[in-house]
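Sat 14:20. Reprocessing the chain from the morning session after the first attempt stalled halfway. Input below, unchanged.
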Amino acid sequence: MNSAILTIDDISSRNTPAIVDYLKEKGITAVLFAVGANVEKFYDEAVYAVQAGMIVGNHSYSHPSFSSISLEQGIAEIEKCEAVLDKLYEDAHVTRQYRPFRFPYGDRGGENEQALQKYLADKGFDKLDDGKITYPWWSENSCNQNIDTFWTFDFEEYRIYLEDSFKIENVWNKMNNRNPAQGAALFGKDNHHFVLLHAHDETEAIIPQYYKKFIDYALENGLTFEKPRFK
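Finished this time. Tokens:
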């Protein structure tokens, strides 16, 4: 059986409530990684996600590449987003149990990587339980030790609105690729994944309910979504 934890980056957005409603319908609890500035822009939508039982994690305040900024700037990005999320949970009247973190673009900070990992550990950020992930590259890239949440499969559907040559067919092809150059095959034998989608209104404008199309297809092909657990 193939299983996965669903993660969704870049909330909040106009389509966040629709995504959340769909996930609730399917019985899926996702980890939604929030950009602080996006939460401030679409605040009620983010409150809706928290009250619906989704786990909202930190994805920095303004989504920079951490290797292009200083350690102090990186920590400030994390802490500014933390302040937004603490207020979000307070306003939603929901206790904030978990504080996962994901680096924008998966960029762990270059020469500041170890210092940032120490900061995340010292500040008590929560590591998503990756005990079922056995791909060699996961441990080779220290994903099993690092506090931040990386992914094993990225739908890359955001490219649809960024690149004229990237179409929905490219997403289908990637989902069915049994030997990807990066990451791991979505459909295989007893695979476990941290899969990555994005909450982008720009994609929604081109392909309405894109998230539903891709997740439905994954479910139809035997992928089950588990409730996130933390170490």
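The mean pLDDT is 97.
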